[in-house]
Design a protein that fits this description.
single chain; alpha/beta; five-stranded parallel sheet; 7 strands
Length: 223
Amino acid sequence: AGSPALADAGVPVEDAGVLRRALDYSRPFGIPVMLRPGEPALERDGVMHEGAVSLRVGLRGVPALAEELGVTRLVGLARLTRAPVHLTHVTTARSLDLVRRAKDDGVRVTASAPARNLLLTDADIESSGYDTRLRVMPPLRPEADRVALLRAATDGTLDALISDHVPWGQEDKELEFAWAQPGATGLATALHATWTALDGDLGRVLALLSVGPGRVLGRGGRL
């Protein structure tokens, strides 16, 4: 009917057999299947990145491995089915290395990251006093991952940046950090976050927020 893509709505498909069939059925249409890499069993109880900061502030963490296992799984399925797969929410340095390697091997994968992850880190949760606007999924990562994302935004590993617009009402966010719903306003902040993170490089900003997404969707580099 003219849909430019299929997606999992940010909820990883746990059954690899179902996902393989979905990719097999989508391939003849030539449209990308947008999937968030993640391992639900490792994500289920976490509320921020698992690391030194989560240990200090006393919040249950989501290990980076949850995303990295998801990337490995989706790259393998893309290789097997030869279907175009777009990995959304790629946020760790190791995940980016896996994407880079897959592209070099000719696997039909593209990738994007939330714009906010180029600007914010898990340390901002601590310094903000548990600001629940920073309770997002995937979680904000450490500085080393933020730097890796900046590099990936300039070397072509990331094809696009996304707003990751998941707004909630006050009753869902004005709670203790662990009880707040994961998600934040993205449409109103993505351009500013990208502009700030890339030091006002207008060409790169447009490439990541407009040209790149347009190419991923097969719209000739325009969105």
